[in-house]
Amino acid sequence: MSGLEVRELSAGYRGRTVVSAVSTTVDSGGWLGIIGPNGAGKSTLLKAIAGLVGHTGSVLVDGRPLGSLRRRERARTIGYAPQIPQLPIGLTVTDYVLLGRTPHLGPLARESAADLDVVSSVLARMDLTGLADRSLSTLSGGERQRAVLARALAQRAGVLLLDEPTTGLDIGHAQALLDLVDELRVELGTTVISTLHDLTLAGQYAERLLLLDRGEVVTEGAPAEALTPARLATHYAARTSVLRSPDGTPVIAPIR
Ligand SMILES: Nc1ncnc2c1ncn2[C@@H]1O[C@H](COP(=O)(O)OP(=O)(O)OP(=O)(O)O)[C@@H](O)[C@H]1O
Ligand SMILES: [Mg+2]
Asked: In what residue span(s) does the ABC transporter domain sit (predicted)?
């Protein structure tokens, strides 16, 4: 499906550069986790890839520069779930998640049975079926977060950018979400880039981790290579011990 290449991407705000010359590639169906301390530039990097903040350098999907795509085509190519979403508060959950299908609608702009199927299956998988007719303004924090992710997943874009998708989710709903994303990756070849502050989850789901600090790439590699107590001390000022789960993935335990 859609491989992604980021070349020498720099981005920032009002002349202040907060992401400096980041280059990376994610194969079609791959999952890259972006980690790093608060303010490192992770969200800015995702927004720049999505074309939502000014940047230099280039982003290519299947070798085509994203900048050359029309809006609709871009929306079918890249899905983005922001860390701090702005919600149109009057909508119901169903109508909001249906907005994810907008880039796929035909000339009459009516959703088809297939669009409704995608929406109802995503709602079910995100445990939102019982809330389908509720107004967004009445949802709890975690329910709202799940609605935002459901909309991005319903978009079925080839590349999915998820900024702290598990924020506010309990451990079971966090796993259900990451499992669903992983399924899309395996079954549809969706290419995933996510930021995740939970480093254990990041290491369990992402195939590779890119550690960003002060806008620069510190390291990129397999989770077991990227997550070392020494790196977490240097870049997060954190005291940790790295354990191993039965399947060999690192478990980051904070040490008091
Ligand atoms: N709209 C903006 N205008 C000005 N500066 C901004 C803006 N958004 C972010 N910044 C600054 O850019 C830097 C990087 O912010 P960014 O949101 O990318 O960090 P992050 O790595 O996602 O952090 P967090 O882990 O807290 O989500 C920070 O210093 C932040 O204050
Ligand atoms: Mg962020």
From this structure: 4-239
